[in-house]
Every structure is written in C-alpha cells, then in structure tokens.
C-alpha cells in the first residue's frame, strides 16, 4: 500500500475509534460519550459481570462488594456496597463512565454523581432479552462491540433453544422463595418470574407488582404451588427450604418438589441467567414427572 494511502487508512481508523458513541439505557435516557470509555466504575455485581462478558473487563476501574465473577472481578478496587457506595471513592477513580443499578443503588447517590458531571448508564434489565441488549450497549460504550455483539448473539441463540424446548410443556404452578424472614418472593416485574415462565412454570404471585414482595405462609398454602424453588444467599441449599415439609397439604411438599437454584445463576441479570434457567427448567421437569407417580 502506498504510504499516503496507509496514512489515510490509519487516520480513518483513529477517528472511528475516537468517535462519539451513544446508547439508550434502561430508563430511556441517552448516554453519549465523546469516545469509548476507558475508566468504568460499576455499581452493581451484575453490571460488573456483564461488562466482562462484553469484553470491557480491562476498562473497569472500580466496582462494589459481591462483584465476584469472573475471577478477575475479585481483584478490582472496591467503592463500597451497591446500596451504600462511597461517593468520594467513586469520584477519586475519575471514571469516564459509571454503570449504575436503578433498583439497587440509592437514587439520591446516583443523582449526586450525575450532578458532578459523570456520564451515567442506568441498568435495569427486567426481561431475559434485555441481557443481550445490555451486552451490546455496554460493548458500544466501551469500544468492545465485537465481543459484546458476539456474546449477545450467543445468548439469544441459547434463549431461543430453551424457548423452543419448553414452550409447550404442561404448566407447573411455582412459588419462588428468595428469603425466609421476612418471607420474600418475586413479583411480575422480577426477571426470575420471566425465567419461571420460560420453563413452562406459572409464578403463583405474578399478580404482585413489586420486585420482591413479602408474603405470608398462609398465602403460600392458599396458592398451593406444585413446586417450591428457593435461592438463599450462597452456593448451598438453604436449610429453611425444608421448613415447608410441615405443610403437607401443599402439593409441592406432598410430592417432594422442593428445589434449589444457586442465587448467582438466577438472581443476577447476566449471561449466566440462562445457566440458572436450565436448572430451574430441569426442576420443573422433575415436578412434571412426579405427577404420574402420585396419581
């Protein structure tokens, strides 16, 4: 290639890599950067994981506690917890992009960061499909679209496979338990409710609008779920899941349909959500198989 053409090509590539980038975040706001972000602060564990999946891990300057996946995320600087992060610590990292969590971060703290002039992308992927879109959008903002787009494509293909496999399966009425005291479940807007539907399940508390409503034992008994699924806080099955065994009138108890899904796989809005979905779908298949043996 003649030297002058090489220079022209290099300049074009330079301008492209330094061009304005913009996306629409989950609140409908436009996020515009003069160039792809090189120093990102993530204020949510799920956002940290998704940034890594979108190829932007090396651009993360800091994050919050419990950002523990992938392994490299454990080595990142911390700015506090997602519900009470340290504003000064965030500012000290001089980010050119902050990824915040609409339902997890304190709104007042997020607005203070906005008032300080930091560009903000607000994340709140409430539908399974939103995970793929977030991979693409964060890839654009970080200048790693090649990786982000490929990850999004893979996610959509895997999701389509699960939809095809379980779309026609008989419905399983399902109670998903987040915690024991208070007794918390999932409402219609929670992404886990969409996972239950993906697997051919029916969230018995889908009529509740809040993300994590509190319910009573009596309400669960009245709903009479065919399967009870719990997450808890760690990698082990929570002991309190077996507390339901005293309520033998519940179909899920009578058929021993008390199941566990690791919380990191289903309570984070990340590509691993489909790992959790596969486990939940398998549990509901077990529940279906037990209909024959108990009839």
TrEMBL record:
InterPro entries: ABC_Transporter_SBP, ABC_transptr_periplasmic_BD, Vit_B12_bind_prot. This is Periplasmic binding protein. Residues 1-19 form the signal peptide. It holds the Pfam family Peripla_BP_2. GO terms for biological process: cellular response to iron ion. The keyword rRNA processing does not apply. Keywords: Signal. SUPFAM superfamilies: Helical backbone' metal receptor. The keyword Signal applies. Transmembrane segments: none annotated. It comes from the Bacteria. Residues 39-288 form the Fe/B12 periplasmic-binding domain.
């Amino acid at each position: 290639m003649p030297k002058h053409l090489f220079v022209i090509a290099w300049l074009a590539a330079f301008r492209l890599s330094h061009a304005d980038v913009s996306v629409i975040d989950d609140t409908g706001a436009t996020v515009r950067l003069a160039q792809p972000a090189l120093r990102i602060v993530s204020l949510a564990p799920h956002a940290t994981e998704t940034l890594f999946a979108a190829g932007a891990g090396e651009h993360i300057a800091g994050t919050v506690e419990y950002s523990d996946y992938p392994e490299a995320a454990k080595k990142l600087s911390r700015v506090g917890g997602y519900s009470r992060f340290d504003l000064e610590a965030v500012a000290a990292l001089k980010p050119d992009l902050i990824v915040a969590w609409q339902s997890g971060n304190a709104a007042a703290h997020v607005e203070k960061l906005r008032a300080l002039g930091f560009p903000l992308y607000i994340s709140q992927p409430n539908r399974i499909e939103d995970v793929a879109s977030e991979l693409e959008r964060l890839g654009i903002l970080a200048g790693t679209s090649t990786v982000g787009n490929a990850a999004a494509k893979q996610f959509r293909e895997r999701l389509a496979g699960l939809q095809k496999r379980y779309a026609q399966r008989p419905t399983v009425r399902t109670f998903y338990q987040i915690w024991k005291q208070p007794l918390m479940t999932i409402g219609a807007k929670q992404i886990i409710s969409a996972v239950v539907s993906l697997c051919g399940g029916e969230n018995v508390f889908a009529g509740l609008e809040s993300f994590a409503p509190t319910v009573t034992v009596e309400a669960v008994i009245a709903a009479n779920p065919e399967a009870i699924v719990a997450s808890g806080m760690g990698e082990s099955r929570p002991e309190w899941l077996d507390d339901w065994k005293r309520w033998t009138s519940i179909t899920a108890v009578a058929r021993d349909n008390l199941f566990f899904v690791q919380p990191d796989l289903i309570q984070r809005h990340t590509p691993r959500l489909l790992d959790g979905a596969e486990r939940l779908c398998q549990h509901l298949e077990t529940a279906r198989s037990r209909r024959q043996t108990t009839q």
